[in-house]
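Issue 218. Parser rejects a valid record. Input:
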Amino acid sequence: MKNPTAILVEDEAVLRGELRDKLAHLWPELRVVGEADDGVDALRLLAEHSPDVMFLDVEMPRLNGLDVARQARGRCHVVFVTAYDAHAVAAFEHGALDYILKPIDLARLALTVRRVERRLGGTPQDLDDLLRQLATSRPRRTHLRWINASQGDLVRLITVDDVCYFQADTGYTNVVTNDSQVLIRRSLKDLEVELDPAIFWPIHRSTIVNANAIAGVVRDFRGRISVTLKSRAEKLPVSEAHVHLFRQM
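Output the parser choked on:
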């Protein structure tokens, strides 16, 4: 009997690598025959490899996961990878379909693996009802909730609530928490569009601060303003274009 095959479709490379590694640990017989970071490449891999199962991110560029699933139905088993809220999760469960929530929990993934293994000999699930339901009640894309940071062989997940500030650093971004800092391979500009603007304030072209981490503001003898933080000693300069954020302080 041949080993089952899979393709992984996830637009975040770090999460895709984490999923690959956890599957290798939980399901060593599974052979990952392809990986894609958008829906168009996912359909190409589906046609090339005819996998037994597809681990499919719901929100992706170019072609989202629901569009891919419509074309994959009946051709392979689909496991949705999602950051959706409780209402959408209820839709998955009502349809008895398999899903994984981000960030990926090893125990939940193990349960999904067992369920998929049992189903491999049968016909792939009927996705029609679920896809109709999600298409009409899809929640809007939520703000960024965590940061994936690689530190050697370790992938660290940092919730954005724990971030004091982000600071640009030559094509990278320095993510600073109460007691640590780490460089990630994302630009500050890219991060800014995904952060909740009510909480994360740009105070300089190179700095975005978590408003909840602000202790106060200080003004030097030239009238220039800096932000002080509740749990860190450094002060963050505020550019003239962003001084208006602190007029009420």
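Fixed in the parser; the record now loads. Residues 13-26 form the longest helix (14 residues).
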